[in-house]
Design a protein that fits this description.
Layout: H1 13-40, H2 48-82, H3 89-121, H4 141-162, H5 166-186, H6 199-220, H7 226-246, H8 250-256, H9 263-276, H10 287-295, H11 299-308, H12 310-354, H13 356-362
Helix pairs in contact: 1-2, 1-8, 1-10, 1-12, 2-4, 2-6, 2-7, 2-8, 2-9, 3-4, 3-11, 4-6, 5-6, 6-9, 7-8, 7-9, 11-12
Length: 366
């Protein structure tokens, strides 16, 4: 049976584990983002080995986001394409799209209300108010891009079913997208403060769309020898970041993982999903696998919560990392930052399971 014709009613624990790895990577990336920027703009004279470490960490943000879009494309687009010949296609797809969109919107509403309540009655949170929109628009841009792609999936599925060689079309799109991304990263990065609709900014969304389409390609035909491919991509990432860091080439370090347009992160994400789906989901699920599947429903909520509350948790995290650097040096900074990121994420997961998921269940959306 091909990947495209599987029902996917049972969640694949390996795919769920990959989603968990992705959100952990994003959490660590968010913690070290200001340190990476300080290292690459020259305001922090980090050692060569630390430059390699923060360079590798900087790949995690785009890697995690690509993973999420790849997985969504792997499941959603082939389903839509296989149903495109039906008489009630648009009606059925509209119903499915609403069911997928409502939990996303409800998640944003739940955490927006919590943030407003905290900022109004507990302690002020910078930029969180009814008079500003940046915390809900720019701060959640990944969520809005994901929602837009989910809404557009029925159209993409209809087109996919009518293209004779969709994988060839996707391959051309990917080559074009990352050629433009390479131009941005290595030639014309633009200013640090880019508007939401600035073309370089929009390339992040286009890159995620490319990942979504590639996920659908993997559902039709997976890559051969995915373990070897993942090892090769990991070695290439280590070699590239190592060369830049050990030579203290901060310009190259920044270009290799520029924003969300990193080819290295994309390749690692594709290889990771290819390995995760190389075998069908096991019929007998182990206890660790059940635990992973029980935790992953909080991924969406944790992403939204960490984004909305960035102004609340990031200053405390920065101070903790700065203290670790002052007391124990760069190794302590890396260790404390990574551990604190995981602990914070675990706390957000627990809160999300108690609050947001309970609300969605009460509304019939979970």
């Amino acid at each position: 049976m091909s990947h495209r014709t599987q029902t996917h009613k049972q969640r694949n624990p390996r795919v769920e584990a990959l989603r968990l790895v992705a959100i952990v990577g994003i959490a660590i990336f968010h913690t070290f983002q200001p340190w990476f920027e300080a290292a690459t703009d020259g305001s922090w004279a980090a050692s060569p080995l630390t430059l390699v470490a923060v360079g590798l960490i900087s790949l995690l943000g785009a890697y995690g986001n690509h993973v999420f879009f790849l997985i969504s494309g792997y499941y959603l687009l082939p389903r839509a394409a296989s149903a495109a010949g039906g008489d009630r296609y648009w009606t059925d797809q509209a119903r499915r799209t609403v069911r997928r969109a409502l939990p996303i919107l409800a998640t944003v509403v739940v955490y927006a209300l919590i943030a407003l309540a905290v900022s109004t009655w507990v302690t002020p949170i910078d930029r969180v108010s009814l008079h500003e929109t940046s915390w809900l628009v720019g701060g959640l841009q990944f969520i809005w891009v994901y929602l837009a792609i989910v809404v557009a999936t029925p159209v993409m599925g209809w087109v996919w079913s009518r293209v004779s060689r969709p994988r060839a079309v996707v391959a051309a799109i990917v080559v074009a997208v990352f050629a433009v991304n390479a131009y941005i990263a290595f030639v014309s990065p633009g200013s640090d403060s880019r508007g939401l609709l600035e073309w370089r900014k929009l390339m992040s969304a286009v890159s995620y769309l490319a990942a979504f389409l590639v996920g659908a390609c993997l559902a039709e035909k997976n890559l051969s020898r995915p373990a070897a491919l993942l090892g090769a991509c990991g070695a290439a990432a280590l070699l590239a970041e190592g060369a830049a860091g050990l030579t203290s080439n901060t310009w190259l370090l920044g270009a290799l993982s520029f924003k969300s347009t990193s080819l290295v992160s994309f390749a690692l994400a594709v290889a990771s999903l290819s390995l995760a789906v190389a075998r069908p989901a096991p019929e007998a699920v182990s206890r660790p696998a059940r635990l992973v599947c029980a935790v992953t429903p909080s991924i969406l909520g944790s992403y939204v919560a960490q984004s909305i509350f960035t102004a609340a948790w990031h200053p405390a995290m920065d101070a903790l990392c700065a203290d670790a650097l002052a007391l124990g040096g760069e190794a302590a900074l890396l260790l404390v930052g990574i551990v604190a990121s995981v602990v914070l994420l675990a706390g957000v997961f627990a809160f999300d399971r108690l609050v947001r998921i309970s609300v969605l269940r009460a509304l019939g959306l979970a």
